[in-house]
TrEMBL record:
Binding site for L-glutamate: S9, R42
Chief place of localization: cytoplasm
Residue positions binding pyridoxal 5'-phosphate: A76, T77, W102, T152, D172, Q195, N238, T239
Start and end residues of each Aminotransferase class V domain: 4-349
Pfam families with a match to the protein in the record: Aminotran_5
Gene name of the record: serC
Molecular-function GO term, any one: O-phospho-L-serine:2-oxoglutarate aminotransferase activity
Protein name: Phosphoserine aminotransferase
Pathway: Amino-acid biosynthesis; L-serine biosynthesis; L-serine from 3-phospho-D-glycerate: step 2/3; Cofactor biosynthesis; pyridoxine 5'-phosphate biosynthesis; pyridoxine 5'-phosphate from D-erythrose 4-phosphate: step 3/5
One annotated GO biological process: pyridoxine biosynthetic process
Organism: Acidihalobacter prosperus
Cofactor(s) it depends on: pyridoxal 5'-phosphate
Assigned keywords, A-Z: Amino-acid biosynthesis, Aminotransferase, Cytoplasm, Pyridoxal phosphate, Pyridoxine biosynthesis, Serine biosynthesis, Transferase
Amino acid sequence: MGRVFNFSSGPAVLPQPVLEKVQSELLDWQGSGMSVMEMSHRGEDFTAIATRAEAALRRLLDIPDDYRVLFLQGGATAQFSMVPMNLLREGGSADFIDTGIWSRKAMAEAARYGRVRLAGGGERNGYARVPTPDELDFDPAALYVHYTPNETIGGVEFSYVPDSGSVPLVADMSSTILSRPLDVRRFGLIYAGAQKNIGPAGLTLVIVREDLLGEPATAATPTVFDYRVYADNASMYNTPPTFAWYIAGEVFEWIEREGGLKAMGERNHRKAAKLYALLDASDFYRSPVAVDSRSWMNATFTLADEALSAAFLEGAESSGLKNLKGHRSVGGMRASLYNAMPEAGVDALVEYMREFERVHG
Ligand code: PMP
């Protein structure tokens, strides 16, 4: 059976060369006589794998020395709690930009630990666009500003980094990290679940500026949710997700071989532009998102005649174009176009959509 074009929002398509390398090393990693899955996380071999992965990520993102990279578990969802448990000190408050379902979840979780304040966005624009810089209203006394650069479900993405002044900016980059160049210095803390642009599910990446690694915000913060503990123990306070960490390292090196984040950005921009051009040129398909807020990673669209949706999805499936159904909370379609989705996948999708319109339009 051949491989399909998998447009899933995550867990998502991984680069084929990475899968092939992992397969070739599955039983015997580089002469060790064992699989990476079977290694002690504290042994020499895995330590080398872990160090090499972090070094590749640091090169890719040009991460400054005063930032720590943490390899955690719990998904981005755990970060919705871990961020306030570490940064939302008693009496303080955190600013949130609300651009959809994931920002709302992060905000609701933080509200369990302290005061949260809406600094922009919200439901009033129907989540069809991100706020403009002049619509943002930050509290200069906030402990941090949290936002979601790319809303995976709505397909709404910031094309700029908000200016939070001296207040640390915290970003849930789950579905946009590594999709293009990024200036890490603009952020206090970046987090991302791995299962889109990094690797398999089970690994969560945190990039955090050293000065934010103090005592946790509350004495009740569990050790396993204390950033400092991970930073002090090279992310090995307890057993890390070793196999996912190893694959992430392979993905980072694959990105480097492909030309790094600049090349990724150009390719991703081209991929998204092809799909949006088709949506804009047609009355048969619709994009619910404002032009300046359209996601490069998760393109959402609907059929003007919703009754055709089932046939659209069925035809796509049988053409090897999988997982185009939108999130159950919003409906419609969603094509996730992460780094590992080849341009040929987008070309095949566009061709299928043109043909479907020709037959049913
Ligand atoms: N934030 C964003 C932007 C996401 O896309 C997702 C997952 N789709 C999450 C958070 C939750 O991630 P996890 O399932 O890894 O906890």
